[in-house]
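Hi R.,

Here's the input for the iron/sulfur cluster complex you asked about:
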Amino acid sequence: MAKSLCTQKVFLFTRDYILRRKPYPFSVTLNVTTACNLHCSYCEIPSHALQEPSMEDLVRLVRSLGDRTIHFNLTGGEPLLRKDLGVLVDAIKNLPGPTYLTLFTNGKLLSKRKEVLERIDETFISFDGSREFHDRRRGAGSFDGAMEAMRTLAEMGKTYSATCVLGRGSEQELDFIFEHATKHGFKVGFIPVRVYSRSPEKLDELEPTPEEMHRMIARIKKFPLASNSPRGLDQLAKWPQQPTLDRPCMGGTTFFALEADGRLYRCCERRPEQKVPEPIDPDRALEWVERVPRDPCEGCWNIEGMEMTMMFSLVPSSLIKLVKNARVSHAMRKSH
Ligand code: SF4
Ligand code: SF4
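And here is the predicted structure with iron/sulfur cluster in place:
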């Protein structure tokens, strides 16, 4: 049964995306809230204070995408602030056919929400460096929260990774991050601070100098547990020049992002011109997928979008990295 449902998703992907060249919602990020229990120095998301989508709408939405979407990603704000998140997790994991479910969290509430985690396939925890550095950026107690989250996931036998935001001062934290990740066997994805902050005054204080960024990327390239692909890191090394793609971005073609206000965007960049203006009709999500603007895009700091594009474009080094990342996750599962 599971095999035939998997075959059905492969059939629909081949028919709609490859043969008919239609957009296909392979990977969908759901921003379930803009609220957060931390106030990280570089993040503007909580200030957006958008009205949360109702759980009923979210469940209807995932059901209307369910025979196509392979990967759902839950993020925010802090998604674990939603007391009803378990309802959405169950709705996604009860969809027909295989579905990979990921969750991005700062980790602080995680040990109190074990019931939600049981059915998450991979959790990504914010991890910027040592206690002193992490707490300075993200607030007192946030480092201990992240560490407790990792311990909880290990005890539950669950797979986790870390997300590290590269900014000014991160260079001195790399040794700590590499050692901690190596000791516990988890991957680390590195993203630039510009993903979270756009205000020029803030960025002046928060961003690394070009020399700092270049030195960091050179070291990250040698770190075997970095989940970024070599080409993704090359793009980051262009800093302060914005990364660009040598091919059309697949944002709005194979991956999409739903903002907490119910608008469907091309990608997690959530640019105003890259959304469907009306809130999504949760029962007709596929129509909204087809309406997402797909004008040529000059690039962005959303490294995740670039990695997805290279993966869907079958760039060999990205596929090799994908396999390596999967092997790290597998080794972690076996070690628990
Ligand atoms: S970076 Fe994440 S944890 Fe920090 S304030 Fe923003 S949403 Fe919250
Ligand atoms: S290049 Fe960036 S902003 Fe443009 S569609 Fe891709 S992920 Fe989105």
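One thing worth noting: The chain has 14 helices and eight strands.

Cheers,
M.
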